[in-house]
């Protein structure tokens, strides 16, 4: 999806406002990833779901679909006792996606 289309879809917000929102979100993604990693180490699957759900929602609001999809997978993998391997695989995919 092109940025112009995203801006229209979001009600015509100015590009600089959108860019600032994305920048703020991206600044928090690292903490979200760290929080999920820590929760996985402690078998804190409810925390994994909570953080992934929040990050999924924020990325969806910003139309960052690849990021949203990965957090959605992480959230789903944390259900019913948690699938550690699936969560870790998707975290690695997320980190690769976010590398400059």
In short:
This protein is mostly helical and 100 residues long. Helix content is 79%, strand content 0%. The protein is elongated.
Describe the structure in your own words.
Helix content is 79%, strand content 0%. It has five helices and no strands. The protein has one domain: Up-down Bundle (Four Helix Bundle (Hemerythrin (Met), subunit A)), CATH 1.20.120. The protein starts with a helix and ends with a helix. It is an all-alpha fold. The model has no long low-confidence stretch (mean pLDDT 94). The longest helix is centred in the N-terminal third of the chain and has 27 residues, at 15-41. Helix 2 (15-41) runs antiparallel to helix 3 (45-61).
Write the layout of secondary structure elements.
Elements: H1 3-9, H2 15-41, H3 45-61, H4 65-77, H5 84-98
Helix pairs in contact: 2-3, 3-4, 4-5
What are its keywords?
single chain; 100 residues; mainly alpha; Four Helix Bundle (Hemerythrin (Met), subunit A); 5 helices; 0% strand
Q: CATH fold name, please? A: Four Helix Bundle (Hemerythrin (Met), subunit A)
Question: Which spans of ≥5 residues are poorly predicted at pLDDT below 50?
Answer: none
Anisotropy-based shape: elongated
Mean pLDDT over the residues: 94
- In whole angstroms, how far apart are the ends? 20 Å
Number of strands: 0
Query: How helical, in percent, are the residues?
Result: over 70%
Q: Which CATH class applies here?
A: Mainly Alpha
Number of discrete domains: 1
Q: Give the structural class.
A: mainly alpha
Number of helices: 5
Rg, Cα atoms, Å? 14 Å
């Amino acid at each position: 999806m092109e940025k112009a289309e995203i801006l229209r879809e979001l009600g015509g917000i100015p590009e600089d406002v959108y860019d600032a929102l994305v920048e703020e979100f991206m600044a928090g993604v690292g903490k979200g990833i760290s929080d999920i990693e820590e929760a996985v180490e402690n078998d804190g699957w409810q925390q994994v779901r909570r953080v992934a759900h929040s990050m999924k929602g924020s990325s969806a609001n910003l139309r960052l679909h690849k990021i949203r999809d990965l957090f959605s997978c992480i959230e789903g993998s944390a259900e019913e006792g948690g699938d550690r391997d699936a969560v870790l695989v998707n975290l690695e995919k997320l980190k690769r996606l976010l590398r400059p």
